[in-house]
Amino acid sequence: LDADNYETDPCLKEIRRAENYSWMDIITIHKDKLPNYEEKIKTFYEEHLHLDDEIRYILDGSGYFDVRDKDDKWIRISMEKGDMITLPAGIYHRFTLDENNYVKAMRLFVGEPVWTAYNRPADDFPARKQYMKFLAEEA
Fold first, then answer.
1. Sequence-separated (6 or more) residues with CB below 8 Å from residue 45
2. Rounded Cα distance, 69 and 84, in Å
3. Fewer C-beta neighbours within 10 Å, C or N terminus of the chain?
């Protein structure tokens, strides 16, 4: 995606329309830009899941999303300017900055945002059970 022109990018507009991403905001994760920076960084890195998909579009900077594979091993996904990721509801994950200690990202949601993170273990949620069922069907 064209992160330099995200406000007018027709590809982003089409993704938002097709996926019904009706709500968005922009977060800058940097010690000089994010209130309670140290606390937030620790929270983002704590292994957790959400009950809704997590959609992030990197507008500037870089970082890593770590997700668990079907064998519960970590997979590190490098994210940089122009990348978009959708983490399905129920997947355990975490986020960390790289050595640049800076990322600016668009957060997208279907409907109103839900910010609740459920730290592991959170296996009894229907979203987790549905995700595990999906993994079993794919195997």
1. 94, 95, 96
2. 19
3. C
Dihedrals phi, psi of 43, to nearest 5 degrees: -65, -45
Residue corresponding to tokens 């997700």: 67
In the CATH hierarchy, which top-level class contains the domain 8-136?
Answer: mainly beta
Over residues 75-96, the pLDDT tens digits come to 999 999 999 999 999 999 999 9
The answer for 13, left when phi > 0, alpha when psi is -120 to 50, beta otherwise, is alpha
Six-digit token string for 16: 């938002």
Are 67 and 93 a contacting pair, CB within 8 Å?
yes
pTM of the predicted model over 0.90: yes
Partners of 106 in the β-ladder: 26, 57
| CA–CA distance, 42 with 38 (Å, rounded to integer) | 6
